[in-house]
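Researcher: Quick test of sequence recovery. C-alpha cells follow.
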C-alpha cells in the first residue's frame, strides 16, 4: 500500500511540475534544438542585414542624426566646419561603421525577442512572470541611459573638449571615425551602466545581499560612480563626472527602496508559511 501511495504522490508531483512549465510543447531532442537554434540565428542575421540596408538607404539622414550632439555643442561658433577623414579609404570605414552600428541598434530589440522566444519554453511560469518585468525594466533603463548620454553627456564632453582646445589655442580637426566611435560606445556604455539597479534588485531577491549592507556601502558606491563616470567619459572634468555619478546615485537609492520592498514581501511570505505550517 505504501508503495502505491508513493507512486501516486510522485505522479502528482510530476503533474504539478508539468503545470509549472510554460507553454505546450513536445519533447525535443538535441538535433531538434539545434535546428531551432539555426533558424533563430538565421532570423537574427536577416533582421540585422535588413536594418543595415535600411541605414545605408537613409545614410545621410542617419549621419546627420548622429552629428546632432556635435552641432549642439559647437553651435554657430565656427570653431570647426565639420568632421574630416584622414586617408582616401577612411570614408569606407566610416560607411561600414555607420551601417554596422546603425543596423545593430535597430535590430537589437528583434534579436532579443527571437532569443527570448527560443529560451522561453524552458522556463517555468514563475520564472516567466519574473522575467517579463525584469526585461521591460532593463530595456527602459538602457534606453534612458542611452538617451541621457546622447542628449546630455556627449554634448557636455564635447563642450569641455572645445573649451580646452580654445584655452590652448589648438585648432579643431576631428576625424569622423573617431567621433562616431566615441559617440556610439559612450552611448552603449552609459546604457549598460544604468543596468546595475536591476543587478542589485536581483541580488536582493536571491538573498545574496541585504539593503542594510547596501546602505552601509553607500559611500563606497558613490566613489565607484565617480570612477565609472571618469572611465566612461574618458575625461578628468569633474562636471562631466558628476553628470554621470548623480543619476547613478539616484538609481542606487531607488534600487535600495525596491530591494527593501522585496525583503518585506519575502518576510511576510515566510511568516504566513510558518502560521500555515504544522504546530
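Model:
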Amino acid at each position: 500500500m505504501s508503495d502505491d501511495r508513493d507512486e501516486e504522490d510522485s505522479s502528482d508531483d510530476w503533474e504539478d511540475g508539468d503545470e509549472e512549465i510554460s507553454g505546450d510543447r513536445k519533447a525535443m531532442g538535441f538535433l531538434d534544438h539545434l535546428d531551432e537554434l539555426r533558424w533563430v540565428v538565421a532570423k537574427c542575421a536577416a533582421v540585422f542585414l535588413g536594418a543595415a540596408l535600411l541605414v545605408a538607404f537613409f545614410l545621410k539622414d542617419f549621419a546627420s542624426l548622429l552629428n546632432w550632439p556635435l552641432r549642439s555643442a559647437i553651435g554657430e561658433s565656427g570653431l570647426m566646419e565639420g568632421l574630416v577623414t584622414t586617408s582616401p579609404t577612411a570614408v569606407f570605414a566610416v560607411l561600414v561603421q555607420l551601417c554596422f552600428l546603425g543596423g545593430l541598434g535597430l535590430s537589437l530589440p528583434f534579436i532579443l525577442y527571437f532569443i527570448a522566444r527560443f529560451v522561453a519554453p524552458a522556463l517555468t511560469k514563475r520564472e516567466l512572470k519574473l522575467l517579463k518585468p525584469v526585461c521591460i525594466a532593463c530595456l527602459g533603463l538602457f534606453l534612458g541611459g542611452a538617451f541621457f548620454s546622447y542628449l546630455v553627456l556627449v554634448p557636455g564632453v564635447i563642450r569641455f573638449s572645445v573649451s580646452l582646445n580654445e584655452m590652448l589655442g589648438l585648432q579643431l580637426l576631428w576625424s569622423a571615425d573617431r567621433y562616431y566611435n566615441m559617440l556610439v560606445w559612450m552611448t552603449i556604455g552609459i546604457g549598460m551602466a544604468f543596468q546595475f539597479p536591476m543587478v542589485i534588485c536581483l541580488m536582493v531577491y536571491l538573498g545574496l545581499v541585504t539593503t542594510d549592507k547596501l546602505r552601509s556601502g553607500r559611500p563606497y558606491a558613490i566613489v565607484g560612480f565617480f570612477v565609472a563616470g571618469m572611465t566612461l567619459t574618458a575625461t578628468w572634468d569633474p562636471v562631466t563626472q558628476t553628470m554621470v555619478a548623480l543619476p547613478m546615485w539616484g538609481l542606487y537609492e531607488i534600487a535600495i527602496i525596491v530591494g527593501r520592498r522585496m525583503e518585506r514581501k519575502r518576510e511576510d511570505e515566510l511568516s504566513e508559511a510558518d502560521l500555515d505550517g504544522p504546530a
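The chain is about 80% helix and 0% strand.
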